[in-house]
Amino acid sequence: MEKIHDILSDKFINSEAEIRGWVYRIRSSGKITFIILRDSSGIIQCVASSDNLNEDQMRELSSMTVESSMEVSGTVRKDDRAITGYELAIKSYKIYERNENFPITKDLGEEFLLDNRHLWIRSREFTSVLKIRSTVFKAFADFFYNNSYYQVQAPMFVSTATEGGSTLFTVDYFGEKVNLTQSSQFYLETLIYSLEKVFTIAPSFRAEKSRTRRHLAEYWHAEGEAAWYSNEDMMKDEEKLIEYIVNEVIKNNSEDLNIIGRDINVLKKIRAPFERIKYRDLIEMANKKFGMDLKYGDDLGADEEYNIMIHFDRPIFVTNYPEELKTFYHKPDPENPGEILCHDMLAPEGYGEVIGGGERIYDLNELLDRLKKNNLNPEDYYWYVDLRKYGSIPHSGFGLGLDRLVTWICGLKNIRDSIPYPRTVRRVKP
RNA sequence: GCCGCCAUAGCUCAGUAGGUAGAGCACUCGGCUGUUAACCGAGCGGUCGUCGGUUCAAACCCGACUGACGGCGCCA
After folding, report:
1. I need a surface site. Which of A208, A408, A416, A430 has the fewest CB within 10 A?
2. Which nucleotide lies at the shortest CA–C1' distance from A112?
């Protein structure tokens, strides 16, 4: 049994091959039938003609339907008329299941495709996105393993918020109300005291009723935390990480990039280091060079990020946000009062934020002070506060939206198309 | 939560100044030995999202609701 991709080669010409998969396209003109068969590796045209097959077999093959499953064996030959350059002359075959009719045809509506997601993921384009996604997840983990980080796992049921606000899903936990995690950061911070450098890949849940092309209610959150790291140290790892992931995709998925129409040359420009721009300098740049109208203290919304990042062809780091724009645990910058040691990584081509990170406060009183200012009860965060009492050290971390990263790398219009089963405000099926 | 847009055949969409609905694809049958989302002929296929209102008459006008998509805010 061969994989289709393997027999698309001059080495296989005139040799016998046996493949199995699903009918991708079928065309018949009576005495000759073309069945394009697909498996996970690719597609190939299979030809049924009366040279090799009897009348009954010809009739049976000509009435096959899209997505029916079958096994085919025959001789491989080169033919420019075949969609992938080679074809297989069918000598024998076995049908596993002949479909009545496959619901998805050439006309594709958004709602219909979302309702039939379980079938749509078979499409050639989606298959390629899923392969790229697989590379991204593997490359993320590999990069950190190669850089002395340990992989850890944090709980999904939690009792404290990380960010504050009403963005948490509440679930019944043996009669007690608890939340689904929106970030594993605090747990990662506890783990650096034994492992020093840790990372995790886990879902995060946000109950925000966001209706945009870059939000999911359940998304894959890749987070890292490193002892003794400054904000700058963290950015250095992150830019190398992104460069590594993009390189792995270029190396392993060039055919997939081609199938989804993503220009590989755009990705080849993604080389570390990435430019670091202080928030206040970015505001000035946006106003002077890009004709925008921003004030110091404005948060960068989706429009702003788009209008800025459309001018860049590689990611940038935005650092030194004003204190009031970010959450309580960020460490203030001693050299720039009112600003914090943090960074957002914005992806180019208008994609915007994919990473948020920075240095954490490690002084006990400073943390208690910031909790108070944000109207948070230190008792709820007792275990997080404890870290500042027992061998506290400088450290930094980050959170990366893997689905956003895949969306950008694949050049997709909507984050929904980066994940097999997107969970959004209005959709939990299929 | 706010704003916008949409809902007609299994799918994608037309549709008339308000007068009882149409195409392409899919499917079924027939034709064709090199097709490329094949082509040609025929057939099958609809309480025009739901409820209510205006009218002699509503898919079309009005209202509410439901569902879907997009944008903002929030964030990754």
Report:
1. A430
2. B11
Q: What is the per-residue burial (b if ≥16 Cβ within 10 Å, else e) of A84-112?
A: eebbbbbeebeeeeeeeeeebeeeeeeee
Residue A220's nearest nucleotide, by CA–C1', is: B76
Full domain range(s) for residue A395: 117-418
Strand B positions with any atom < 7 Å from protein CB? 1-3, 10-13, 24-29, 31-39, 67-76
Give the CATH number for residue A229. Answer: 3.30.930.10
In a shared domain, residues A124 and A155: yes
B7 C1' to A109 CA distance, Å: 12
DSSP code for A238: H
Which residue is closest, via its CA, to the C1' of B32?
A29
Structural domain tally of chain A?
2
Q: What is the pLDDT of residues A166-209, one digit of tens each?
A: 578 888 899 888 889 989 999 999 999 999 999 999 999 988 88
Spanning CA of A178 to C1' of B49, the rounded length in angstroms is 38
Token pair recorded at residue A308: 């800025």
Three-class secondary structure of residue A151 per DSSP: strand
Residue A107 lies in a domain: no
Domain of residue A19, CATH code: 2.40.50.140
3-state secondary structure of A227: strand
